[in-house]
Amino acid sequence: MAKKLTRGHQKVPIVEMEKNNNLHVTFSKRRNGLFMKANELCTLTGAEVALLVFSPGKRAYSFGHSSFESVIDKFVGNKPSPSVHGGTNHHGDNIDELNNKIIDLKTQLKANKKREEVLGQMIKEGQHKNWWQAPIGEMNLEQLLMMKKALEELQKKVQDELTRQI
Could you give the CA distance from residue 8 to residue 25 in angstroms, rounded to a whole number? Predict the structure, then answer.
């Protein structure tokens, strides 16, 4: 058995880093992960989130949903400015509609991955040889078109054989 070359996933101790280069790389990766989690929270729950992070180099990074300014204005109690409030982005698309599209696409992706797993399992078990025996109601469009083409080819072969024997 070959020896494992990588260290794999290991818990990183939470202590201040000493090397400046490592500090910047770690900050960048963790910042991106934090922003992704904040975006997921907004998408899944409809929460309004504002996140402000200062880098070790004293640069400010912000994330806001629907916008950073509108969430801060709401928190402080100021009336939000019409340019940044109202649930639309700079192209005029409704944020809720876009979030719903993301959720629908994730659902479709999950269903496609499940279908891929099932088909992979069928191939492993050798059931791919008898795919035509599957109930027609459970076939998707691609499988139905494949079955139609196979049946048309079979019909042509049968007609050719009949004319040859007659």
Answer: 19
pLDDT digits (tens, 9 = 90+) for 37-62: 988 898 888 888 999 888 888 888 88
Residue 58 located in a structural domain = yes
100/103 Cα distance (integer angstroms): 5
Strand partners, 154: none
**Could you tell me where the beta strands, DSSP code E, fall in 1-40?**
none
Residue 121 domain boundaries:
101-133
| Tokens coding 99 | 């979030």
The number of domains in the chain is: 3
Partners of 64 in the β-ladder: 50
* Residue whose tokens read 């459970």: 138
Rounded Cα distance between 4 and 8, Å, is 9
Determine the pLDDT at residue 86.
45
d(CA 135, CA 138): 6
137 vs 125: CA distance, rounded Å = 22
What are the start-end ranges of the H helices in 77-140? Answer: 95-124
